[in-house]
Amino acid sequence: MDTSMVTASTASTERTVHSHKVTKHTLSQPATPPTTTGKRRSPHDDTLQINKAEKRPRETGASKIKMVCSDMVVKACLDKYRPYFMSDEASQAVDSSRDSPVGDDTLEVQLEYPGGVEPFLLLRPVKGTRSVEDDIEDKDEYNPIIDLMRTVHFVYDCYLPESQQKLLGNNAHGIMRNLTKFRNRRNGPGFLQAVHDYNAVLRKLKENGDMAKNAKALRHPNYELTCHILYQVYSRTVARNAEALNNYKAFSNNVYGEINPILVKDFLAKVRLTSKSVFMDLGCGIGNVVLQVAAQTGCESIGIEIMELPAKFAKRQLKEYAARMKAWGLPTGKIHLRQGDFLNLEAHNLHDTLKNADVILVNNYAFDWQTNHALAQIFLDLKDGAQIISLKSFVPKNHKINQRTFHMPESILRVQEYEYFSEAVSWTNNGGTYYIATVDRSRLKPFYEGMYRESQQ
User: Fold this and answer.
1) Which residues pair with 168 in a beta bridge?
2) Which residues does residue 82 pair with via DSSP β-bridges, in sequence order?
3) Which of 241, 268, 300, 218 is nearest to 389 (CA)?
4) Is 417 annotated as a binding residue?
5) Any idea what DSSP says for residue 411?
6) pLDDT at residue number 209
7) Assign residue 393 a region: left if phi > 0, alpha if psi is -120 to 50, beta otherwise?
8) Interior CA angle at 67 toward 312 and 43, to 5°?
C-alpha cells in the first residue's frame, strides 16, 4: 500500500469546509487516532501476503490497528458531504422526510467494534441517491451513517447470543430502537446518546471477555458480514479512484471486469473448500474474490494479476482487510497477492503452487483463444480432483476421447455447466453461464483399456 499517499491526503484535509463547522462530540474516552503508516516495502517487491501467524488478534484498540478509518474517507473529500443530523429542537420542528438538513454541526463519534474502535463523521453525501434509511451500501457513494448502522446490526446479529442482545434491546425498544428512531428523525443529540449507550455495552462485553469468546465461536464471517467488511475495505482503498480501472485496451486479454460477491457465494456452494484447501485466482484484479474466499472459508487464498493498477489496488485492499479483520476480531486466513503473468510458471514458484491448488478461478470471459489454450496446457499438471471455475469452458461441447485427442488437456477435464443471474458480474446486468471443470484422469481409463484390447487381438 502506498502509505505516504494516504497519509498526505488525510493530513492536508481542513477541518472546515464552506459553512459546515466540524464539531467533536466525545462520547467515550477517545482512542489514539489510527495511522496508515507502516513498514516501507521495496518498490520492486511485487508480492504481499498475510500469514497464519495473524490468526486471531488479541483485544486491541484503534491505536494498535492501522486501518483507514471512516472519518479519513470523508475528510479527504469533505466538500462532497453535508450535515444530516439536526439539533434536538430542530429535529422536532421539521418533517423528517425533508431533504434539507437544519443546523451546521458535523457530529463526530467513535464506534466500538469487537476488537477495536473506529471514528465516524456523521455526514451524508451531497449527491446521495439513496436515503440514509435504506441501509443499502453503494459502491459509488460512501455514506458513513449507513456504514455505522450496518456495523452495529452485524455485531448484534452475528456476535451476540440472545442473552447479550437483550442488553441492547431490539427494533421495538432499547438502544437498537433508539439508534434507528433518532437516525430517522435526524435527531443529533439523541443519536449520539444511543451510540454512547451502545458503546458502553460493547466495552463491558469486551472487558469481561465475552466478546472474544463470541468472535472465536463465530470462526468465519457469514456471506452477509463478509460483504460488509469487503465494502468497508473497498470504500477506503479503491472507491475514490475506481474509474481509473476502466483505462484498458478494448478487446484485449486485459479488459477489466469483476465477479461480484453473489456469484462467488454460488461458487463456494459448489466446490470443495475447507480451511486446509488452496484457492487460486488467475487474473485476480483488485483482489475481491481472493479476500472473500479467504474470509468465508479460512483457506489459503492466492491471487496473481498482470496489470499494474489493479495489482496496486489489490495490495491496498489486502492491508486494509488485515486491519479490519482485526477490528472485527476475526482470523484473516493465509493470503498471497502477486503481480505478474500467470502464464509465466517460473515466476513466484507458480508451477508448484498450481500443482497444490484445490480450486482455481479463471475469469476468462474476455481472453483470446491463445490464452485459453495456454491455460489448458497448464492444467495438465494439476492434481486429480482439482477444480477449475471459468466463465468460458475449456472443453468443447462435442469433445470425445480418441487417438487424436487423448493427450489433450481437455480429455482429463470433466465439466459441469451452471447458470448465473443478473448483477453477478460487473460488465453486464444480464445472466450467463459458468463452468466447473474437475481434473479426472480416470476418464482416460476406458480409452487405454480399449487400446490394450485392440493390441491383444
Assistant:
1) none
2) 124
3) 268
4) no
5) G
6) 97
7) beta
8) 30
Query: Mind giving me the DSSP string for 267-315?
Result: HHHHS---TT-EEEEET-TTSHHHHHHHHHH--EEEEEE-SHHHHHHHH
The pLDDT of residue 67 is 94
The pTM score is 0.81
Residue 279, annotated ligand binder?
yes
Decide which of 1.10.10.60, 3.40.50.300, 3.40.50.150, 3.40.50.1970 is the CATH code for 244-449. 3.40.50.150
Q: What is the pLDDT of residue 446?
A: 66
Residue 287 labelled as part of a binding site: yes
Contact predicate 123/83, CB 8 Å: yes
Tell me how far apart the alpha carbons of residues 113 and 444 are, in angstroms, rounded to a whole number: 54
* 304 annotated as ligand-binding: no
The full set of domain ranges for the chain reads: 3-48+60-218, 244-449
- pLDDT tens per residue across span 398-418: 877 676 667 677 788 899 999
Beta bridge partners of 47: 338
User: Is 284 marked as a binding-site residue?
Assistant: yes
- What would the pLDDT profile of 314-370 be if each residue is shown by its tens digit? 999 999 999 999 999 999 989 999 999 999 988 878 999 999 999 999 999 888 889
285 is annotated as contributing to ligand binding: yes
The pLDDT, as a whole number, for residue 140 is: 81
DSSP character string of 17-86: ETTEEEEE---S-PPPPP--------TT--EEEE-GGGSSPPS--GGG-----HHHHHHTTGGGEEE--B
Burial class of residue 364 in the structure, from the number of CB atoms within 10 Å of its CB (0-12 exposed, 13-18 middle, 19+ buried): buried
Low-confidence ranges of the chain (pLDDT < 50): 1-46, 52-63, 90-91, 93-104, 250-252
pLDDT at 412: 84
Say whether 282 counts as a known binding-site residue.
Answer: yes
- CA–CA gap between residue 206 and residue 28 (Å, rounded): 15
225 is in an annotated binding site: no
Residue 182, annotated as binding a ligand: no
Q: Give the pLDDT score at 401.
A: 67
Residue 457 burial (CB count, 10 A): 4
Q: Are 302 and 290 in contact (CB under 8 A)?
A: yes
Query: Do the annotations mark residue 288 as ligand-binding?
Result: yes
pLDDT, residue 411, reads: 81
Distance separating alpha carbons of residues 443 and 398, to the nearest angstrom: 15
Q: 3-48+60-218: which CATH architecture?
A: Orthogonal Bundle (1.10)
Question: Where do we find the cell 465439466?
Answer: 415
The three grid cell numbers given for residue 315, joined into one nine-digit string? 495490495
Contact 279, 358 (CB under 8 A): yes
